[in-house]
Amino acid sequence: MNVRRSAAVLAAAAVIGAAAPAAADTSPSPSRALPSALYGDSDPQYDGVWRQSLALLAQHTVGVEPSKAAVDWLTGQQCADGSFAPYRADTAKACDAKTMVDTNQTAAAVQALAALGGHDDVTEKAVGWLKSAQNEDGGWGYVAGGASDTNSTSVVIGALAAAGEKPAEVKKDGKSPYDALLKLALPCEGDGAGAFAFQPDKKGGLAANADATAAGVVGSLGAGLVVEPGKGGSGEAACEKADGPEQAAANGAAYLTGALAEDGHLTSALAGAEDQPDYGNTADAVVALAAQGAGEQAGKSLSWLEKNAADWAARSGPAAYAQLIFAAHATGADPRDFGGTDLVKQLGATGPAAEKATEAKAAEKKDESESESDSGFGVWWFVGICLVAGIGIGFLISGRTKRQRP
Predict the structure, then answer these.
(1) How far apart are CA 230 and CA 192, in angstroms?
(2) Is the pTM of this model over 0.90?
(3) Percent residues over pLDDT 90 in the chain
(4) Fewer Cβ in 10 A, N or C end of the chain?
């Protein structure tokens, strides 16, 4: 959901060559302008569908109806077998064995289109393809046939749930996605206790990965990229032996709470950048903690993002704005006043104009909410006071950030 997609491509590089046909160069021609319906202005070769899906889903989440052209662009990236390619410059040309497709983009598209509604034919075909790409351990890799990883398995779980499927019943050789996640969860003893690994290393060992842990918590709870405020698990808990996905989620949340406790943010896992904040992974961690009900740390880290993430989002583009919107939404914060930044407006500026009627209604609702706040009454006034007091109000892709290399 995007910085995470770039890392996923790098992490999957070792398996793409062995598991999929050589990918065609689908980068846009230097002389060809990007489609006006596409969000963002960077090369979409690897993350076009991912960032488009997150942008559409974020707009829908805050009550803004996305541009029909933007939705049509997304559906147009689907191949006949149901999978999604990150970017098909010429959609009149059918996908072939050289077309690069992956589970993450496909799962993100399903979540966005299922939320928007009216695209059952598209989502059903996409879910069918995802099921066909399920591994024998019950999980998914970044590409069909690649080794299962926590992030890919989790975003597919979100897609299955969004499409009305029961993830626990989607099995391959008797194994469900939750079985795959449990195999990627670290025990409560030793380094990284309770965390999730991205993938096992070459010797089968598991190393804690904060980004994979955020994804694993959400996936273990059967949730997707968007989490409603006040929903989730049982809150903060000590690490215990994971005998099921719920306990694995609680363990992962405990690990994230510890990782965030000192500075309020996660740091980059990239070599040479370990001392730099990782804004995207921190936003994902906020959503994960909210999903589990660990409201206190989620609120603290959201406050850090409000103070520090605006410049990062402006540099990174639509998927970054979407991640921050998801974090704000999961914690009950206002994405239209995120540390003084209107994330909804900023996201909208990266793509085609939203449908004006719905956009106006969303603005009207915002004015009504502010009026209630000014009067000293109403539920939003109460929620705002609770947030300031650090009480928390019960809490939960997108796409995917710095992952452990397999």
Answers:
(1) 28
(2) no
(3) 74
(4) C
Q: How does pLDDT run across 28-70, given as a tens digit for each residue?
A: 544 468 999 999 999 999 999 999 999 999 999 999 999 999 9
Q: In the chain, helix, strand, coil percent, each to 5? A: 50, 0, 50
DSSP at 293 = T
3-state SS, residue 338: strand
First CA to last CA across the chain, in angstroms? Answer: 20
State the number of CA atoms in the 13 A half-sphere of 331 facing the CB.
35
Provide the sign of the torsion angle of the four alpha carbons 388, 393, 394, 398, taken in this order: negative
Q: Distance between CA atoms of 297 and 102, rounded to whole angstroms?
A: 33
Instruction: Supply φ then ψ for residue 185, to 5 degrees.
Output: -90, 135
| Total Cβ atoms within 10 A of residue 179 | 19
pLDDT tens digits for range 230-271:
655 556 568 999 999 999 999 999 999 999 999 999 998 887
**Taking 70 as the threshold, does the pLDDT of residue 96 lie above it?**
yes
Nearest-angstrom CA–CA distance, 269 and 297: 21
- Of 216, 203, 208, 278, residue with least CA distance to 245: 216
What is 3-388's CATH number, 1.50.10.20, 3.40.50.970, 3.30.450.20, 3.50.50.60? Answer: 1.50.10.20
Query: Amino acid identity of 248?
Result: A
Tell me how long the chain is.
Answer: 406
One-letter amino acid of 54: L
Region 165-187: what's the mean pLDDT? 98
Is the pLDDT confidence value at 172 over 80? yes
Q: What's the rounded Cα separation, in Å, for the pair 139 and 147?
A: 8
Q: Where do the H-state alpha helices sit in 47-192?
A: 48-61, 68-75, 103-116, 120-132, 150-162, 177-183
Token pair in block for residue 211 = 């980004």
Q: Where are the domains of the chain?
A: 3-388
